[in-house]
Amino acid sequence: MSLQELDTRPAVTALRRKDLLGIADLSPEEIALVLDTAVAMKEVGSRPIKKVPALRGKTVVNLFFEPSTRTRTSFEIAEKRLSADTLSVAIGTSSVVKGETLADTALNLEAMSPDMIVLRHSSSGACHLLSRICRSAIVNAGDGTNEHPTQALLDALTIRERKGRLKGLKVAIVGDLLHSRVLRSNIHLLTKMGADVWVCGPPTLVPAEMKRFGVQVTSHVDEAVADADVVMLLRLQLERMEGAYFPSQREYFQVFGMTEARLRLAKPDVMIMHPGPMNRGVEIASEVADGPFSVILDQVANGVAVRMAVLYLLAGGAEHEEAA
Amino acid sequence: MPVVMDADRIGRSLARIAHEILERNKGIDDLALIGVRSRGVPLAKRLARHIKEITGDDVPTGSLDITLYRDDLMKHAVGPQPVVRRTEIPFSIDGRKILLVDDVLYTGRTTRAALDALIDFGRPKAIQLIVLVDRGHRELPIKADYVGKNLPTALDESVQVRLQEIDDRDEVVVEQGGAA
Fold first, then answer.
1. Which of A49, A55, A127, B69 meets the CB 3.0–4.6 Å disulfide criterion with B120?
2. What is the Cα Rg of chain A in Å?
3. Interface-testing mutation among A1, A2, A6, with chain B (most B C-beta atoms within 10 A)
4. Residue closest to A224 by CA, chosen among A235, A236, A232
5. What is the pLDDT of residue A93?
6. Looking at residues A33-42, what average pLDDT do you find?
7. Residues of A in contact with B69 (CB under 8 A)
């Protein structure tokens, strides 16, 4: 990209909101702003001193009520690269095990005046609750089966880096559609940006309302993968499954697993994505996960840049006039 | 809206600065030009072209975005965050003499931010400051080494530098009212 291209002003120059609760609330222009800002943030990670003073003196609390390696580490690194003071509350050692409610935990943390709270919670809508009762900016790091907005943003950044655009690409998302917040955020983002989104999974794991989101729904994985520019695999969330949704993991792999043979149906320059953690030999074959089309580790690298962009943009706050 | 520098004047000033750079540094050994976004970047490239015309050699050129180093970034309780753009310095600055290029020198705060940003990239041998216009009113102890034009201004005036590469024409104008 030339310098001149980068000097064109984006359509919007600020996220005029206090919180990032989901992609559903964002306009295409705001999504583009986050992605453009992430491109600049990515460069910071390549410097000898990977730190800029932008969020100096800001306090960010990472409140994770569910296990997470990637997302929590990624947020922590992003916060530190922006010079914020950060702390992470691990729920196993917190007062939650003593029976404190989410609202009480949040209000107690808020009494110590953090500027931002990054929340991961097993209940959909947990971030919306905190958004209403907290002054701090709330960043959704995954709430139940609702949304995981920074994951969708980092996926979009990864696709845009490789393909130069999102509009018009065929993106096939295959896996456990029922339990996936990554899916919901990605559907919102990709349809807003004009991609052709196909979703595919066992009928027992396809939510009834899926078609309403403006995506193509199929149970035939070959149909979803055919001529796809991007194939995104979703993890079978066994920990959220109480019933019998499919006969066995082995059968799931036979019918829906992404193998090299199946991948040949896609475009020759297809990208393979997975938000992690992967179940190798269940939703994805190892040779595909580690193969030449896989961008799974690029996704992780881009996560830091996208989270830096989100934290930086939200630090501007919600109400203001356009600067000169 | 008086035009204080037209295209010819800007061109002559840059040509003169290119000669001054070579004279003061006795050649181009270890030199690199780094433009401060946005309008410092095309200015740095033009200086590199002038130096190449004189010496036949290329001077490495980069661009620096200082947004994340601004001292007013988090000062407003609520305010729009300035747009962050890419910094591109495709060479090591260690041991080099860095020629930092900006369009207007005013309070000195942008230069302060640029110095902090540069130091995070390494340890240059020296940093010299080049500006197209010095309009006075410094708030920090910062001084330019090469100046296209010294332009005494009132605080309520603003100085607009327009460059072909970004604004489709070359001119420097002084406008009444509004913060620069």
1. A49
2. 20
3. A6
4. A232
5. 66
6. 95
7. 52-54
